[in-house]
Here is the input.
Amino acid sequence: MTRTIRICSLGIALSLLVVGCGEIGAETKRYPVINTGIELRGASGFSWCDESYIAVWRRKSERGGESEILYLNVHSPLQAHTLDLSGVQPAVVDVRDLTCHGRDVIFLSYPRTGQKSNRYAERPFAIYGMTVGHPIELIALLKHQGPHINARAKYIVANGFRFWGGRAGEIDHDCANYVKPGFKLFCWNIRHRQIWPLSRFVLAEYRWEETIQVKGEDGQPKTIKNPEAPLLGWDGKPQRYALVLYDLEHQVLTNLTDDPGYAGFGAGVGALAITPDESYAYGVCVKKPIAHGRGWDSVCRYRLDGKRNQVEEVFTIDPDKKFKVVVIHRVAVDSRGNVYVAVTGAKPIDGVWRFHGKTQKIERLTVLPRSGESRLGVSPDGRWLAFTALDQGASKLFLMRIEQGGEQ
Here is the structure.
């Protein structure tokens, strides 16, 4: 399903409305943009909870320190509510990730004691859950950093990778100190990897190294040749990096990046998004052979049914190759197949764009300075787009109303 798109450029003032019209292919509309004034400081981010609410986590001050979580109604965007995190132990809250469903908020916190620790020592992570307006509950206390949770499917993928003597070691199959009854725990090697825990599958980055660390007979780390063979691509060559779909028993089902026609599928932070029904993964890609200096200029998708499928191109942002540099950095997708991307390149193409799944048209929603640093998120009903942008030197959260009433 390849779409050749003619670009339509819309002009917009970031804190105002769309004031210009495109050249070809897109309808002329006005999209209100709201600056919430919420500054995303330090380790921070946001998650859509439902059609009207967003949860934001950030540092309380520019100097760092502990975190806070804000709960924001898009219909009252200047009146964010700060959630009560007093139930977190120890008292210093250090939120590293968050997911939200309705009024249920799940967040990952690194329990900070105020004492300095060796960077290679065990760094426990806690997972807390709360319903807005109710007390916090501990879901799990993991031994190692970087866990991931699917609260609806009630399982946790935890990092079982140990460190010895400043170097990475073998798997700890007992990787948690506590797990709430009713939740399953999987101890996998997931250090330094992006993970998408789905209801039936786990989508994860795969990295292969020639040597690994194991615990020797003397209890000290020992370097050995990796006994596990690397994944092989369609051309029979070993792959050191891939996006792999696993079942919940950690068995490889399919390799999403093993495609003869496209490269780089979903590569990069924020460059892959899962549809709300988990039927497809949408991600950046580039058609082979790759032109010199050309970045990820397309969005592709892959069906997540556990079978070996092929990457499908959805659209290309610059099909006529008018611009020397075009890079798609961020991808978001809604339930109707509309795709939102942050693009950097020449001025006529810089910004946030939307591809209409129904009309197959593309339009620029906003001109966005340094859009490669922006984060995107679309509401479950596809009516609101949340994104970060620089405002007076600080990264702040903006909202854009992109659909009205029953618009499709």
Remarks:
- Residues 59 and 67 are 4 Å apart (CA to CA).
- DSSP finds no helices and 35 strands in the chain.
- The chain has a mean pLDDT of 81.
